[in-house]
Amino acid sequence: MIRKARIEDVKTIHGLLMHREEHEGLVLPRSFSQLYSHLRDFFVVTDNSGAVIGCCALNIIWENLAEIRSLVVLPEHRGKKFGRELVEACLSESVTLGIYRVYTLTEQTGFFAHLGFVKEEMDTLNQKVFADCLNCPRFPDFCNEVAMVMAL
Question: With 47 labelled, which of 12, 69, 78, 87 sits at a CA distance of 20 to 30 A?
Answer without folding.
Answer: 69
